[in-house]
Amino acid sequence: MRKLVPKKDEPEYAKFVADPEKYFLSAIPSWFQSTRFMAVIDILSTHSTDEEYIGERKDLSTWSGDSEIIEAFYRFSMEMKRIEKEIEKRNGDPNLRNRHVNGISSYELLIPSSRHGVTCRGVPNSITI
Question: What is the pTM of this model?
């Protein structure tokens, strides 16, 4: 919506009351604006093939030479994998009704890993916009 429903004391309120449908149609974005918005969201939401997710590092030896840091990162990595398995276990539990209702997909937003593309899951190590 490009504009909100006006309050009674605003000048636009009379137009809203006179023809609410026309006011609503004037408030929604144009086809061009909607298409551009969808394209930007698609580009910003796409995971690249070489993206690293929270708890992942391709080469720890270049990251730090301190064994204590590497061990702490390894424990953190294992915790991320445990969390992912717990989310998948809960998604598969038919007793959790909120996860098994028609039209509602399983919870995947904060699953730590993802494949490339738009997946609605995965927590990247960093973002660039």
Answer: 0.56
